[in-house]
Each structure stands twice: as C-alpha cells, then as structure tokens.
C-alpha cells in the first residue's frame, strides 16, 4: 500500500476540535501512522482568521481519486461547502502526496500543486517524515523549506 500524506486545516469555529473530528473520520477511512503537531498559521490567499494546521501520514488501498472523494465527503459532512470563494473553512483536507505518484489530471493534481510553496504544509510534513522529497522537483522537502521565501508565520501549538 502506498504512503499517503494529507494536510488538514481549519480557521472557523473551534479549530482544534474541527481538526480532531476530521482525524477521527480519517482514521475510519485509512490506516493512520503519524500525525504532526498542530500549528497556528497565518492565512495564505484566504480571507478570515488564522488557521490551525497539521499533516498526517497513512496507508490506503483506495485509488487516489477515491481517496480524494472521501476527503471531500468528510469536508461536506463537517459543514464545508465549496462555493468558489476564499472564505473561512470549518475544515480543509488536501491530498498532498500519494506515494511517488505524479498526476496532472484536471480533478487530481499530485503532488499537491502548492505543496512546495507553503511553510504551513512543509513544516508539518517534515515533522512526520524528515526524509520526504518532492517527486516532481526531485528535491528533499527540507531543502525546499530552507530556500522558501514565504513570509507567513507558522507557530507550533504547545499544550
């Protein structure tokens, strides 16, 4: 089974509770190996308050498009409606990596097209697997992060 990496984010309502609820749903759909710490992150290209973000590593026998549909169903179940606007989100689930698969289909782009441009995605991914590399850029995610010019803040949440 391929390793999959999913990004989770929320900037509406009880953000940490939303993340935990989404993780509960995901654990019923895939075998979850690791979940990163939670991070408080400045919004990038989205209106609204700061996000709580994390990432998970898991395994699944589901095909990539089927897994993506499962993520969209969880978002819908939790109250997210994709209206095309860049507003606040109860939950945002992104399929970041599916093994080493590269896809440029209209409804499935892998790796996630903005994965290498965002600290709030790279930092949690590197936390759970410091050896990950970008299958298109053929660079370690750590190297990408070290040269990234992203001014948005990412702060680990410590309880």
Describe the structure.
This protein is 29% helix and 28% strand. Strands 1, 2, 3, 4, 5 and 10 form a six-stranded antiparallel sheet that branches. It has a two-stranded antiparallel ribbon with strand order 6-7. Strands 8-9 form a two-stranded antiparallel sheet. It starts with a strand and ends with a strand. It has a single domain, classed as 7,8-Dihydro-6-hydroxymethylpterin-pyrophosphokinase HPPK (Alpha-Beta Plaits, 2-Layer Sandwich), CATH 3.30.70. Helix 1 crosses helix 2 (64-77) and helix 3 (119-128) runs antiparallel to helix 4. The chain has helices at residues 15-29, 64-77, 119-128, 141-147; strands spanning 3-10, 31-35, 39-41, 51-59, 92-98, 103-105, 108-110, 133-134, 139-140, 154-156. The chain is built from four helices and ten strands; from the N terminus they run βαβββαβββαββαβ. It has 159 residues and is an alpha+beta fold. One of its GO terms (molecular function) is ATP binding. Its EC number is 2.7.6.3. Keywords: ATP-binding, Folate biosynthesis, Kinase, Nucleotide-binding, Transferase. Pathway: Cofactor biosynthesis; tetrahydrofolate biosynthesis; 2-amino-4-hydroxy-6-hydroxymethyl-7,8-dihydropteridine diphosphate from 7,8-dihydroneopterin triphosphate: step 4/4. Residues 5-130 form the 7,8-dihydro-6-hydroxymethylpterin-pyrophosphokinase domain.
């Amino acid at each position: 089974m391929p390793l999959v990496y999913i990004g989770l984010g929320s900037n509406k309502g009880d953000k940490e509770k939303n993340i935990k609820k989404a993780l509960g749903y995901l654990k019923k759909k895939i075998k979850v190996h690791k979940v990163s710490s939670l991070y408080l992150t400045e919004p990038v290209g989205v209106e609204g308050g700061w996000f709580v973000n994390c990432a998970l590593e898991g395994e699944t026998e589901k095909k990539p498009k089927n897994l993506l549909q499962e993520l969209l169903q969880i978002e819908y179940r939790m109250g997210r409606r994709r209206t095309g606007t860049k507003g606040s989100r109860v939950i945002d689930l992104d399929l970041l990596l599916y093994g080493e698969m590269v896809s440029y289909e209209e409804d499935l782009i892998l790796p996630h097209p903005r994965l290498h441009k965002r600290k709030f995605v790279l930092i949690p991914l590197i936390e759970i697997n410091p050896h990950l590399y970008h299958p298109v850029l053929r660079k370690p995610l750590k190297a990408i992060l070290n040269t990234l010019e992203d001014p948005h803040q990412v702060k680990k949440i410590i309880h």
